[in-house]
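Recall from the previous lesson that a structure prediction takes nothing but the amino acid sequence as input. Here we apply that procedure to Chromosome partitioning protein, ParB family from Afifella marina DSM 2698. The sequence below is the only information supplied.
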Amino acid sequence: MSTAQHSRHVELVPVDRITVLNPRARNKKIFREIVANIAAVGLKRPITVTRRDGPEGLHYDLVCGQGRLEAFQQLGQREIPAFVIEADQQACLVKSLVENCARRQHRAIDLVHDIGGMKERGYADADIARKTGLSLEYVKGVARLLSRGEQRLLRAVESGHIPVSVAVEIADANDEGVQEALHQAYEKNLLRGRKLIAAKRLVESRRRRGKGLSNNAKARPRMSSDALVKAYQEDTDRKRFLIRKADATRSRLIFIAHAMRELLHDDRFADLLKTEGLDSLPKKLAARMDRQELAR
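The prediction returns the following tokens.
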């Protein structure tokens, strides 16, 4: 008999005896809204737990309702209404993963996390798709993303810079296909503005540094002294080039301001500009001309 088929009843359960089997990070703004709503009108829907015996007495494993549980804890409540079901810890964890996948609103990284959790517990793609209501193609795509160690793409998904579906397409594509995936994401309005720029930077970083992330210094190749000198020289050359461009632009601006100032001293030219309605100047150009006039 499945967990969902057990009859459920509501009990008041001590919050300090509940263990969250499938913890996840919370959006702070949404969590504040949950706390404020519960403080104002109370708990609308009980959480779901399963009981188990521990060395210190009766304990509970959370199946569904981490946000509501944490809101009760923040409000200083000692007990919370809960549906108590009968299930072992493995079935409880899988049910939690399935309910998180199937809920209407979820963060993309939560979906990836939960599909990965079910894969780790031996569930086939078809089983995950059937339990969660997701398409088989989508589940297979996310599984590929996880199995290939696409840590850069997963981090971008978690930060909200790129949708999971686009990340999966990038992971499956070659260099030309990656550009096509970005183009299609733009056409579908999935990546626009800053998100598109961030996605392009991500693709370039992934191409140069690989798809994985590592905070372990041993995993990073050590740079030789020659490589460090070369990198320093390249950076210096870039800065010198920027300085030359800035100097050239400044010189052109000075020339334009000087030429305009000289032309405006010609009465016939000034009258012609007034006749054509062209006697106004950009504020910054006019200010620079005034400074040149004062410096004479």
